Amino acid sequence: MMTKGDDKPTILIVDDAPDNITVLTNILTDYNLKAANSGTKALEIALRFRPDIILLDIMMPDMDGYAVCRRLKRDLHTKNIPVIFITAMDEVADEARGFELGAVDYITKPVNPPVVLARVKTHLKLYDQNKALEYLVHERTKELNKSRLEIIRRLGLAAEYKDNETGMHVIRMSYYCKTMATAIGMSDKEAELILNASPMHDIGKIGIPDKILGKPGKLDARERAIMEQHTEIGARIIGEHDNPLLDMARTVALTHHEKWDGTGYPRGLKGGNIPIVGRIVAVADVFDALVSKRPYKKAWPFEKAVAVIKEESGKHFDPGLVNVFVAHVDEIIALAKLNADPD
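RE: above sequence
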């Protein structure tokens, strides 16, 4: 269980009557104790010290115990703290209301010391077990997410190798995507999602014939039409999921070749109708393709590639994102150099 400075759990006692606080304090001498004589003070102490359990009086002026409990359970920082109501009210309806609000137990006044000690000990033990279980679930979930991310990265790398590109391309462009996502105000969680989803942008190329992917010259109209199918193939490979990462990966695969002016594919989406993640990946993907060496071309100088991105503002690319890209181009070029292809 959580402890505050030593091995003793911390208990918060809340009661507007000083005598009642004194009685409970004298019973619970083996614990670290905090006290509050009002609901408002109780909420402040609970948020600041995160006690291991709260003994909460119901009948208090201004804010009664029910209101305090309701507020505690709404706050992510205090919602899991066990609450035991201390009250002279012993009607079944009152107890039911407390349990509905999230309390774990009731102790009636006048309190019986052995009962108080037994109830507190029981619920502290349960709280300790719940914390241990939550930690185990968190660690297992983290491990599963790590495995899922690695699989997604490997699939992205597989698509790049099939297209005669090095796997570093998906690493670089994913970092560019995160940089732009952060710059436009996406949350850390959203920026991390696009970092991990963007490597899947060309997964659909797995379904394109090698003779088209590896053709050294320009594709004819029929070949181009087949090549453009990789966006929808990618979306089908990833599938539809409730998982935010896979959902974003599917959106990226499907929309990263849409263009701001509506001339892109596969759906000819225009402007703000293109999902923001597709617009971000479009800029990152094209820039890295330009500055990367390929069997059919030399790597372009960074300055020339940046000029192309600017020229395509309002045509291929979202003008706002182009401005963000240019504002952070030094950081993006540094990422490109740091993750350069091996000689």
